[in-house]
């Protein structure tokens, strides 16, 4: 993985770094596709922006998925809520991979959770510790909800 030009400060005050991962002989030995993955990390005054771009440099199509995990610290997980999942179907990995539909307006995590919500909206708000964290995603149809507590 290369760090393109190192981290640098933009004219607007943001600090950004760009990481590039391209296929090599070893990757093609286990996944025979040519690609370039570009990962941009931007720090703003009150925002963290993560951008992932996957470029198919091959002549054949391929499918892929990314697992972008966001870990948030909270004083009380049972007070944490996540919005914009109502009506979405999800796979409940804790309950034998059963497919279910979310019925709650706000999803609260009260126990061990491992869900993959399908065809979700582009924006979710996570309320915790009296603050709101907005998660905005584009071209990522799924949203995961994972908490490995018992």
Low-confidence stretches: none
Please give the alpha-carbon distance between the first and last residues.
Answer: 37 Å
Number of helices: 1
Number of E-state strands:
12
The H/E string reads EEHEEEEEEEEEE
Query: Please, what is the oligomeric state?
Result: single chain
- Helix fraction bin: under 10%
The portion of residues forming beta strands comes to over 45%
Largest sheet: 4 strands, antiparallel
The averaged pLDDT comes out at: 90
Explain how this protein is built:
With 150 residues, the protein is mainly β. The protein folds into 2 domains: 2-56; 77-147, no CATH class. Helices cover 4% and strands 47% of the residues. The protein has one helix at 25-30; strands at 2-9, 15-22, 35-43, 48-56, 81-83, 89-92, 98-101, 106-108, 113-117, 123-128, 131-136, 143-147. It has a 4-stranded antiparallel β-sheet with strand order 1-2-3-4, with no helix packed on it. A 4-stranded antiparallel β-sheet has the order 8-5-10-11, with no helix packed on it. The chain has a 4-stranded antiparallel β-sheet with strand order 7-6-9-12, with no helix packed on it. The longest helix is centred in the first third of the chain and has 6 residues, at 25-30.
Topology:
Elements: E1 2-9, E2 15-22, H1 25-30, E3 35-43, E4 48-56, E5 81-83, E6 89-92, E7 98-101, E8 106-108, E9 113-117, E10 123-128, E11 131-136, E12 143-147
Antiparallel strand pairs: 1-2, 2-3, 3-4, 5-8, 5-10, 6-7, 6-9, 9-12, 10-11
Structural features:
150 residues, mainly beta, 2 domains, 4-stranded antiparallel beta sheet, 4% helix, 47% strand, GH-type_carb-bd, aldose 1-epimerase activity
């Amino acid at each position: 993985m290369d760090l393109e030009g190192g981290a640098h400060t933009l004219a607007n005050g943001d600090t950004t770094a760009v990481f590039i991962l391209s296929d090599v002989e070893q990757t093609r030995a286990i996944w025979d596709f040519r690609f370039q993955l570009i990962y941009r990390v931007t720090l703003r005054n009150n925002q963290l922006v993560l951008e992932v771009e996957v470029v198919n440099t091959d002549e054949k199509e391929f499918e892929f998925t990314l697992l972008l995990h966001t870990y948030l610290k909270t004083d009380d997980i049972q007070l944490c809520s996540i919005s914009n999942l109502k009506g979405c179907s999800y796979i409940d990995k804790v309950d034998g991979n059963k497919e279910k539909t979310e019925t709650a307006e706000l999803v609260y995590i009260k126990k061990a959770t491992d869900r993959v919500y399908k065809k979700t909206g582009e924006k979710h708000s996570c309320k915790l510790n009296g603050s709101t964290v907005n998660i905005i995603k584009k071209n990522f149809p799924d949203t995961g909800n994972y908490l490995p507590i018992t």
